[in-house]
Write a structure and sequence with these properties.
Distance between the termini: 64 Å
Number of helices: 8
CATH architecture of the largest domain: 2-Layer Sandwich
Largest sheet: 9 strands, mixed
Strand content: 15-25%
Structural class: alpha+beta
Mean pLDDT: 90
Helix content: 10-25%
Order of helices and strands: EEHHEEEEHEHEEEEEEHHHEEH
CATH topology of the largest domain: Pseudouridine synthase
CATH superfamily of the largest domain: Pseudouridine synthase
Oligomer: single chain
Number of domains: 3
Radius of gyration: 22 Å
CATH class of the largest domain: Alpha Beta
Low-confidence stretches: 1-5, 7-14
Number of strands: 15
Length: 338
């Protein structure tokens, strides 16, 4: 089955996707084009498939950097997933919603979402394999069911797919920006405005590969809306709404405008820097801020349309204890110094 408008169509049994490039997409890199058209596969996974020969075009031995041409026919065959070597692990999970298609998890800070460098196990995926068993295979053997991710030290709401149909539907909705996500963060200093929008592309940091950075004329489009919820002396509680979902997006964006997340040592929000904003007479507040051990960023709300029932779903998560303690301390000791 082929598409005539540049949109992916797939055969569920054969895991085959066929595309015809339209003029508007001509000139894009092959891996970027496929990542945009097949949102249920990560760009890294697509690159692996191209390099393994699973992608066929009108030219022999296509490469990731090849530019697609208008009218070009592209076929991608996704091989059956390999058996997972991940071990189920009995790790506590806060499952706030579950049905036959999906779960909504309230992830605790400190829990990696999936195995990776430095985290071979002890992840959300290991916990899911223990409690749920069957998950979508689209994310591959290391990311079964993972529709989107949160950083290890970010807490809050996360969507997980139990089957491939739900995973594809949710991934496509995410790509169309139809999944609404709201985050809260305590940040350093007070913005001059009460709200705004950050439009700045994000890419891998050129020197420190574990970090991301705002870049010009490169990277991936990233859009973050923000508004101030409360102001304190030297700090603010800010709500963020995402249009895109790039790696470290909120952390990089808010740091780029001078307001890094409290506790975020990677992007300028370290406790040592935060302590410099506290008046000497505010020892109780200083003690509370020094107790912060991670970035105080929390995925507070998520809204989406259920892939099977088409019902509007909305979930909200309370602030975790460490975030709430820091916020309470600022409300008690940080208001009168404004």
């Amino acid at each position: 089955m082929e598409s005539t408008n540049g949109t992916a169509t797939h055969n569920t049994l054969q895991q085959e996707v066929r595309l015809e490039v339209v003029a508007a997409d001509a000139g894009a890199r092959l891996d970027v084009y496929l990542a945009n058209k097949i949102p249920w596969l990560s760009r890294n996974r697509i690159q692996q498939l191209i390099e393994s020969g699973a992608v066929q075009t009108s030219r022999p031995c296509p490469r990731c950097k090849d530019r697609v041409e208008a009218g070009e026919l592209i076929t991608l065959v996704v091989p059956p997933p390999k058996a997972s070597t991940l071990e189920p692990q009995d790790i506590p999970l806060d499952i706030i919603y579950e049905d036959d298609d999906l779960l909504v998890i309230n992830k605790q800070a400190g829990l990696p979402v999936h195995p990776g460098a430095g985290n071979p196990d002890g992840t959300l995926v290991n916990a899911l394999l223990s409690k749920i068993g069957n998950l979508s295979s689209i994310g591959g053997v290391e990311r079964p069911g993972i529709v989107h991710r949160l950083d290890k030290d970010t807490s809050g709401l996360l969507l997980v797919a139990k089957n491939d149909v739900a995973h594809r539907s949710l991934s496509e909705a995410l790509a169309r920006r139809e999944i609404h996500r709201v985050y809260w963060a305590l940040v350093l200093r007070n913005p001059t405005a009460n709200s705004g929008t950050i439009r700045a592309s994000v890419a891998r940091h050129p020197a420190i590969r574990t970090k991301m950075a705002v870049v010009r004329n490169a990277g991936k489009e990233a859009v973050t809306h923000w508004r101030v919820l409360e102001r304190f002396h030297g700090f603010s509680l800010i709500e963020y709404s995402l249009e895109t979902g790039r790696t470290h997006q909120i952390r990089v964006h808010t740091a780029s405008i001078g307001h890094p997340v409290l506790g975020d040592t990677a992007y300028g929000g370290s406790v040592a820097r935060a302590a410099q904003l506290i008046p000497p007479r505010k020892q109780e507040l200083l003690h509370s801020i020094r107790a912060v051990t991670r970035q105080l960023l929390h995925a507070k709300e998520i809204s989406f349309v259920h892939p099977r029932t088409h019902q509007e779903m909305h979930f909200s998560s309370p602030l975790p204890e460490d975030f709430q303690k820091a916020l309470d301390a600022l409300r008690i000791h940080g208001k009168d110094a404004l």
